[in-house]
Amino acid sequence: MKVIEAVDRDTLRLVERASIPLQAGEVRIAVVAAGVNYLDIQERTGAYPREFPYVPGGEGSGVVTEVAPDVSTPMVGQRVCWQGVQASYADEAVAPAWKVIPLPAEVSHQQAAAILLQGLTAQYLTTDSYAVQPGDLIVVHAGAGGVGLLLTQLAKSLGAKVITTVSTQQKAALSQAAGADQAVAYEDLRSTVAGRAAAVYDSVGRTTFEDSLHALAPRGTLILYGQSSGPVPPFDLSRLGPIGSLTITRPTLRHFVSTPASLHSQAALLFDHLKTGTLTPPITTTYPLADAAEAHEALQSRSTTGKLLLLPAPTTLAAPDRAPRPAPE
């Protein structure tokens, strides 16, 4: 099997490895598309330390090629996707069967690999971390990023007014096309919102934290779900009372999809959002598997929009990008 190996903080390379034998409860999948996330960069560069060498990646889509004897579903030949499965930068992946989600016929491999992790994230952020209400003013940092675009669409579907932060006019246009009522430069957030937001969704961290607090209305909620600019410095929680009895939460997806029932029900809801048009499939930029380092450089430079995908070389095991349509009667 071909995998991308993180040799150290600066080096990603394509190598050959032996296939991993299946254990009880596992399935083998021919990878059609693997999602690239900023978390992958943070793990490689030390924000969330890993032991080198290792194979990055935690989400993707593909076709089941083998199942352990005790696995009844999914079945060999089934189109599936997954998140939270390590070593997905490869042409085959081994995953616990319960973490593998069957793909509806209407959802392509690339759409699934592009939306699963970020879509599930946007769902729990808008329903559990803070339950968006009609009429809420919501701030979404990095509004043209993968999660930012989906957060905007879901918050708008729930009746919120959404203001996003962006770094370029091109990103502002993309954010507004996703439904944002206004897209502003990061440095303009304070003068634009100033104590009026019911919630701020902040994936940037260090450089936006104080502006996020300043944007909140009394009893507002700051949801810190990432740290692309670095971790927030030590913070005195006693500040939250005088500036408005504010709430801060630092959620992570795995605690919201930690059981088979929660994962599969949330995935079904996500696919329903795609079918009904509540969510638009992300714009994707694709790279060959061998060009994973180039994909990381592009994402790290913040020059990208939407979602980046790695595509392993086609194999005879990979199914078409969409399930075959039934023949007309």
The parts where pLDDT drops under 50 for at least 5 residues are 315-329
pLDDT averaged residue by residue: 93
Total domain count: 2
Number of helices: 8
Q: Mind telling me the CATH class of the largest domain?
A: Alpha Beta
- Residue share in helices? 25-40%
Rg, rounded, reads: 20 Å
Number of strands: 15
Based on the structure given, which CATH architecture of the largest domain is correct? Answer: Alpha-Beta Complex
Backbone structural class:
alpha/beta
The CATH topology label of the largest domain is: Quinone Oxidoreductase, Chain A, domain 1
CATH superfamily name of the largest domain?
Medium-chain alcohol dehydrogenases, catalytic domain
H-E order: EEEHEEEEHEHEHEHEHEEHEHE
Biggest beta sheet summary = 7 strands, mixed
Quick overview of this protein structure:
It contains eight helices and 15 strands. The chain has 329 residues and is of the alpha/beta class.
How does this model look, in words?
The protein is of the alpha/beta class and 329 residues long. It has two domains: 2-116 and 257-311, Medium-chain alcohol dehydrogenases, catalytic domain (Quinone Oxidoreductase, Chain A, domain 1, Alpha-Beta Complex), CATH 3.90.180.10; 135-251, NAD(P)-binding Rossmann-like Domain (Rossmann fold, 3-Layer(aba) Sandwich), CATH 3.40.50. 26% of the residues lie in helices and 27% in strands. The protein has eight helices and 15 strands. The protein has helices spanning 38-45, 109-129, 146-157, 169-177, 189-192, 209-215, 260-276, 292-300; strands at 2-8, 11-16, 26-36, 59-67, 79-83, 92-96, 100-102, 137-140, 161-166, 182-185, 197-202, 216-224, 247-249, 284-288, 307-311. Strands 3, 4, 5, 6, 7, 14 and 15 form a seven-stranded mixed sheet that branches. A six-stranded parallel sheet has the order 10-9-8-11-12-13. The protein has a two-stranded antiparallel ribbon with strand order 1-2. Helix 2 (109-129) crosses helix 3. The radius of gyration is 20 Å and the shape is globular. The termini are far apart. Residues 315-329 have low confidence and may be disordered.
